[in-house]
Specification:
N-utilizing Substance Protein B Homolog, Chain A, transcription regulation, single chain, mainly alpha, 147 residues, 7 helices, transcription antitermination
């Protein structure tokens, strides 16, 4: 499996792993890519690195957004996997104009379902759907109105 779904899974795996074992980002990425089972295409590796750095750089804004849509729950109280999946999807929805929000939502649901189960997938869907409804960008196409 290659492509964006696998890339998003790698982002979630990396961010989940570093949440419990923080280390210097460049070293952690190097260690992550040294896993011989990972054979990404250059574009997928670049995407993973960009999204990881983006999520980490924008984490305060992402978490503030999540807090508004999780009935004022402290983001740190969410399950670690749900929190990570949500952060990745919200990052894409807010900061990646090349990814339609419905794609981010659908991918997050599938990743949550695969790694955490149906209940988690429903929770992720509910939160992301509420966020998407208030976005000021097309939901099904990349945002070409950057102005």
């Amino acid at each position: 499996m290659t492509g964006r779904r696998q890339a998003r899974e790698w982002v979630v795996q990396f961010l989940f792993q570093t949440e419990f074992n923080p280390e210097e980002l460049d070293q952690a990425l190097e260690d992550f890519w040294n896993d011989e089972e990972k054979k990404p295409l250059d574009r997928d590796r670049n995407y993973v690195n960009e999204v990881i750095r983006g999520v980490l750089d924008q984490q305060f804004k992402i978490d503030r957004t999540l807090k508004r849509y999780t009935d004022n729950w402290d983001v740190e109280r969410l399950g670690a996997l749900d929190r990570t999946v949500l952060r990745v999807a919200v990052y894409e929805m807010l900061f990646r104009d090349d990814v339609p929000p419905v794609v981010s939502i659908n991918e997050a649901i599938e990743i949550a379902k695969a790694y955490s189960g149906q209940k988690s997938a429903r929770f992720v869907n509910g939160v992301l759907d509420r966020i998407q409804k208030e976005l000021k960008r097309p939901s099904r196409t990349p945002n070409t109105d950057n102005g």
